[in-house]
């Protein structure tokens, strides 16, 4: 029923219609980006307004208030806060992967500080934003009236830049939302180029080029499962972690955070950590300082003296924004910006290619039109010049300008445009040089017209232009990836996902202080060098073990009491060269009076068969390595010991070689390993060598390699290499033969190792000095020789405390069978034997105090 201007309607129908109209308005005109240029309307209006006003990357900065006012007045009457916040975000390096605005002034911070008022800040377009607007004046896009019908605005930008995935976007509409992460330009361009060349490429093929999001704040993405799902379906979830490491300073450890997850507020993060410490949820943090500056983020979390850094770091990942989830929802407008759709990766890239094809086609038609129009004018000018006398006569005989124009058209068969151009031509154009310029311009235009027409006749050539444009963008704006992506991981996995698999050196002192540092910290020196300071030790403490191993290896710690403990190498705190390290008792459950006497590093418990152990009193034992694959936190029994005996040496073996033992007073015995039958883990060993003199003890046990030498090092820094064939094979439990002639000058033997000429030896003294020298520089001498000076001891009372051998050569051969072996290691020597081939291209192996399978 309708009475005058009053209509009677059903309120449910009216509310439904009004709400749907409102919802579509918000979806299309406010909250969601267009798949073609990756921009929301407010984004597009800001860039278009700045371009129209000449506020480009090469012009001076303008007040943000002026920019915002122009956008509000002409295109976007939705409040200045919305426009200014968008403008500011475009200029924040922690929000945008590739900033579209070059800002000057306070544009906010990662701490959540707001930007300064718009009357104080200035801005201009960034250089990369020009690529979004390039060719907008060549009829490449459709324009529409603004809100009041007085201005025109583009419906979409030409967008040479693949902005939707490049910078990503977040938006909340009515009943739907979008959350697209940013990506790296180089990878994105490579993926699009690959799709151009291979239209049937699968998502997996594209993912090999575009490996995943790349956030402006860096960080670490754990696992690719969520990325693969998002690329395949448009939706996925991934875990992002901060990038952090541990530093040691004056005996205390600190966790240093250098990169944050995307959109993580640093100030809120600090407040959360302080709250957790106050509530007792995290125990072990003593202080926290923000040392961030213009060079980057540096959040320092200082730990208590007895805290375990890895444990605290895992707690921070669990309870704070140092680890967050990012839900990918690639929702964008398709079908000329009218329909919202969740898009997989391939559809987004294909939409970009199709849009660029349309833009380039329209640009080509525009350029062709302009070239044809200009050629048409030049053609008329050339006719006029060729008949200049008659043209002048015709004009002079005409009553007025219009009559002259009509006469020229009728006399010379010209178009109205050509006749007008002739009338407008200056007399100076009749000079010979000017006439030649007109002819040259006309000829060049003919070539241009032919090229443009050929491009329109062969649309596939447009794809070549798209590829060329992407290569240009890569070269001009491309940069390295900031976000690290770890394969096959998720947020519930251990910290191993954050640890690079690399060779490191682990040092352990007699007092039980342990630390980890890069294995190449100590440069090779010549024989007789004094070395560098390798570790600051406590009073009356000495370095006992130096182990070369990989961060992913498992360390087995064998103690003087015959027990064994297990620890991952990466769980050992990373520290500086002169740092003391962390007490080992904080990492494994050894007793106060228990000392680690041997350490081996194992990569795989299935690649070797046995552990061979020897005690200080000359006992030996062989046990299956598999019995040590799962060691409890409170340790396991590795060998039963007699009273006053200690476990001293452990090697890894396949059970087919020979063993050589050396004593402190210079005796050595060599016998077949088969003489020691395998026995259980908690059994006692059998006799290996007779110790004739009281006070003598075993200082070295190794597995024989006929192509190698026995390296002998004494307490006073003397050493030599003796060929292995000078040590005859005897039966087990003999007195042995002389290994070295000892004098008060040489001191007693402290360690022996089986080495080759390609190895390096690392010696550390009781005062903490360390030197690394090539083994080939140590003289090869007979058993009765006293050796040469290997390391000069610069301090009174100093002596050699630890010996490690870095093995460069991976493959060794035993005399009885051609069995490939790997030199492995422990604190007193070890040998890793493997069945089958050994890859010669694998990284440097190590010995003396570590092994790698």
UniProtKB/TrEMBL annotation:
It catalyses: ATP-dependent breakage, passage and rejoining of double-stranded DNA. A type II topoisomerase that negatively supercoils closed circular double-stranded (ds) DNA in an ATP-dependent manner to modulate DNA topology and maintain chromosomes in an underwound state. Negative supercoiling favors strand separation, and DNA replication, transcription, recombination and repair, all of which involve strand separation. Also able to catalyze the interconversion of other topological isomers of dsDNA rings, including catenanes and knotted rings. Type II topoisomerases break and join 2 DNA strands simultaneously in an ATP-dependent manner. Keywords: ATP-binding, Coiled coil, Cytoplasm, DNA-binding, Isomerase, Nucleotide-binding, Topoisomerase. SUPFAM superfamilies: GyrA/ParC C-terminal domain-like, Type II DNA topoisomerase. The gene is gyrA. The active site is at 120 (o-(5'-phospho-dna)-tyrosine intermediate). Residues 32-498 form the Topo IIA-type catalytic domain. HAMAP family: GyrA. Belongs to the type II topoisomerase GyrA/ParC subunit family. This is DNA gyrase subunit A. It comes from Candidatus Chlorohelix allophototropha. GO terms for cellular component: chromosome; cytoplasm; DNA topoisomerase type II (double strand cut, ATP-hydrolyzing) complex. Few gyrases are as efficient as E.coli at forming negative supercoils. Not all organisms have 2 type II topoisomerases; in organisms with a single type II topoisomerase this enzyme also has to decatenate newly replicated chromosomes. GO terms for molecular function: ATP binding; DNA binding; DNA negative supercoiling activity. It is an enzyme of class 5 (isomerase). Residues 416-455 form a coiled coil. It is found in: Cytoplasm. PROSITE patterns: TOPO_IIA.
């Amino acid at each position: 029923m309708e009475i005058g201007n009053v209509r009677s309607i059903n309120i449910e129908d009216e509310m439904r219609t009004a709400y749907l109209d409102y919802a579509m308005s918000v979806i299309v005109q406010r909250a969601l980006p267009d798949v073609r240029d990756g921009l929301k309307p407010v984004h597009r209006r800001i860039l278009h307004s700045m371009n129209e006003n000449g506020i480009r990357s090469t012009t001076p900065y303008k007040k943000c208030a002026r920019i915002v006012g122009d956008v509000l007045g002409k295109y976007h009457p939705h409040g200045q806060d919305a426009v200014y916040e968008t403008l500011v975000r475009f200029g924040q390096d922690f929000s945008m992967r590739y900033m579209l605005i070059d800002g000057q002034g306070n544009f906010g911070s990662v701490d959540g500080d707001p930007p300064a008022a718009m009357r104080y800040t200035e801005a201009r377009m960034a250089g990369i934003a020009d690529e979004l607007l390039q060719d907008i004046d060549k009829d490449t896009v459709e324009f529409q009236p603004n809100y009041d019908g007085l201005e025109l605005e583009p419906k979409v930008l030409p967008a040479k830049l693949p902005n939707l995935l490049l910078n990503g976007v977040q938006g909340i509409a009515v009943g739907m939302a979008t959350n697209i992460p940013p990506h790296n330009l180089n990878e994105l361009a490579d993926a699009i180029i690959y799709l151009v060349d291979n239209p049937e490429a699968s998502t997996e093929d594209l993912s090999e080029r575009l490996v995943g999001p790349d956030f402006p704040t860096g960080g670490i993405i754990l696992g690719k499962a969520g990325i693969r799902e998002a690329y395949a379906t448009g939706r996925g979830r991934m875990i992002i972690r901060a990038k952090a490491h541990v530093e040691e300073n004056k005996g205390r450890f600190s966790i240093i955070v250098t990169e944050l997850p995307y959109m993580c507020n640093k100030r809120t993060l600090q407040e959360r950590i302080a709250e957790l410490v106050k509530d007792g949820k995290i125990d072990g943090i003593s202080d926290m300082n923000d040392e961030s500056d213009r060079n980057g983020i540096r959040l320092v979390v200082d730990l208590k003296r007895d805290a375990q850094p890895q444990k605290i770091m895992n707690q921070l990942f669990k309870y704070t924004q140092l680890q967050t989830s990012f839900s990918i929802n690639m929702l964008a407008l398709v079908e000329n910006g009218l329909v919202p759709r969740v898009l997989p990766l391939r559809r987004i890239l294909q939409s970009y290619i199709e849009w660029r094809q349309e833009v380039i086609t329209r640009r080509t038609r525009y350029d062709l039109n302009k070239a044809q129009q200009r050629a048409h004018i030049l053609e008329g000018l050339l006719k006029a010049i060729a008949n200049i006398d008659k043209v002048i006569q015709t004009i002079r005989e005409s009553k007025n300008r219009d009559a002259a124009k009509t006469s020229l058209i009728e006399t010379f068969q010209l178009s109205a445009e050509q006749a007008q151009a002739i009338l407008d031509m200056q007399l100076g154009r009749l000079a010979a040089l000017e006439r030649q310029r007109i002819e040259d311009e006309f000829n060049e235009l003919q070539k241009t017209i032919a090229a443009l027409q050929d491009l329109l006749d062969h649309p596939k050539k447009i794809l070549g232009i798209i590829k060329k444009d992407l290569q240009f963008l890569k070269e001009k704006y491309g940069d390295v990836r900031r976000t690290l992506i770890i394969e096959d991981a998720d947020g519930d996995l251990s910290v191993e996902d954050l640890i690079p698999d690399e060779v490191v050196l682990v040092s352990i002192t007699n007092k039980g202080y342990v630390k980890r540092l890069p294995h190449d910290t100590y440069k090779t020196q010549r024989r007789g060098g004094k070395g560098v300071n390798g570790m600051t030790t406590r009073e009356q403490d000495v370095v006992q073990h130096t182990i070369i191993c990989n961060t992913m290896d498992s360390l087995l710690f064998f103690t003087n009491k015959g027990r064994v403990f297990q620890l991952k190498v990466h769980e050992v705190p990373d520290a500086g060269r002169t740092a003391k390290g962390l007490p080992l008792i904080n990492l494994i459950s050894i007793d106060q009076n228990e000392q680690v006497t041997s350490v081996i590093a194992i990569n795989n418990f299935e690649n070797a068969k046995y552990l061979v152990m020897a005690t200080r009193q000359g006992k030996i034992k062989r046990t299956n390595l598999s019995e040590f694959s799962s060691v409890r936190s409170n340790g396991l029994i590795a060998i039963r010991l007699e009273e006053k005996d200690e476990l001293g040496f452990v090697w890894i073996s396949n059970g087919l070689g020979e063993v050589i033992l050396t004593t402190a007073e210079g005796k050595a015995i060599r016998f077949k390993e088969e003489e020691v039958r395998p026995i259980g883990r908690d059994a006692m060993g059998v006799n290996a060598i007779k110790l004739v003199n009281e006070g003598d003890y075993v200082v070295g046990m190794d597995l024989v390699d006929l192509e190698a030498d026995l390296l002998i090092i004494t307490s006073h820094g003397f050493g030599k290499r003796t060929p292995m064939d000078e040590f005859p094979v005897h039966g087990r439990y003999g007195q042995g033969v002389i290994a070295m002639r000892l004098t008060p000058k040489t001191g007693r033997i402290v360690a022996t190792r089986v080495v080759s000429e390609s190895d390096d030896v690392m010696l550390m003294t009781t005062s903490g000095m360390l030197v690394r020298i090539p083994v080939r520089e140590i003289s090869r001498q007979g058993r009765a020789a006293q050796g040469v000076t290997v390391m000069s001891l610069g301090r009174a009372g100093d002596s050699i405390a630890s010996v490690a051998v870095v093995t460069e050569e991976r493959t060794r051969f035993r005399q009885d069978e051609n069995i490939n072996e790997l030199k492995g290691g422990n604190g007193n020597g070890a040998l890793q034997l493997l069945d089958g081939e050994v890859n010669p291209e694998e990284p440097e192996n190590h010995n003396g105090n570590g092994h790698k399978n």
